[in-house]
Design brief:
Layout (H helix, E strand, L loop, with lengths): L1 E6 L2 H8 L2 H8 L4 E6 L12 E2 L9 E2 L1 H10 L5 E11 L2 H8 L3 E6 L7 H7 L2 E4 L9 H12 L9 H5 L18 E2 L2 E2 L9 H19 L1 H9 L1
Parallel strand pairs: 1-2, 1-6, 5-6, 5-7
Antiparallel strand pairs: 3-4, 8-9
Helix pairs in contact: 1-6, 3-5, 4-6, 8-9
The protein binds adenine.
């Protein structure tokens, strides 16, 4: 898979993409990241990438020409996704969909967002990572990349681990415990140490259901509507 990121801060992503699962997936040849510096596609002396919004109201809008040039220079941008608080919520299903693409191009906006004409011409979908406003799309791009890359076959080296993650089956996951069995006066649940896999599975299903009911009842409603 190839993931392109168009940003005015390529160095924001460089470090995190070299670490942990995103870094190991790149080393294993499962994914290739291309960080594209939007400023290189600005044509004026100051390499301007933003301007005041038409209609006023403060903030700055990312200019269309540098994005047009950067996207035009990509041979096959694949699915083009813009990170924006105005986007559709990013979730596990979206991550699975993106992981099935061979090429993904992420656009990082700043300030008041990207000129809408770029979105109309190039963008397949806008996604938001949550109902809050970040200073720019860069941290959101990292979130999307991490969630997608860990789904690539071979990235985790342990499919069972992904299969017990939250959201894999539409629920939050059960809580986890490790050694020591007793810590600070609290015991890890005996059932998890029983070696009885059907009891362990039942316990996990019960705790996943309980956590989801308490914390995210919306996930259960969504399933019912499917
Ligand atoms: N850019 C600014 N805020 C964002 C958010 N919540 N999700 C995605 N991109 C963003």
């Amino acid at each position: 898979m190839r993931i392109n990121v168009i940003t005015i801060f390529p160095e924001y992503l460089e470090g995190p993409l070299g670490l942990s699962i995103p870094g190991r997936a790149r080393e294993a040849g499962l994914v290739n990241y291309r960080l594209i510096d939007l400023r290189e596609y600005a044509t004026d002396r100051h390499r301007t990438t933003d301007d005041e919004p038409f209609g006023g109201g403060g903030g700055m809008v990312m200019k269309p020409e540098p994005f047009d040039a950067a996207l035009g220079a990509l041979e096959g941008p694949g699915r083009v996704v813009s990170l924006s608080p105005r986007g559709c919520p990013f979730d596990h299903r979206t991550a699975v969909r993106f992981a099935l693409e061979s090429d993904l191009t992420l656009l990082c906006g700043r300030y008041k967002g990207i000129d809408e004409r770029v979105t109309e011409k190039w963008v397949d979908e806008e996604v938001s990572i949550g109902d809050y406003v970040l200073s720019g799309g860069e941290p959101a791009a990292l979130v999307v990349i991490d969630a997608v890359v860990r789904l690539l076959p071979g990235a985790l080296g342990d499919h069972d681990s992904a299969a017990s993650d939250s959201f894999y089956e539409g629920l939050l996951s059960a809580p986890s415990y490790t050694r020591p069995a007793e810590h600070d006066g609290r015991s890890a649940p005996g059932v998890l140490r029983s070696g009885d896999h059907s009891r362990i599975e039942a316990w996990r299903a019960w705790r996943a259901d309980r956590a989801t009911r308490h914390r995210r009842p919306d996930l259960l409603d969504l399933d019912a509507a499917d």
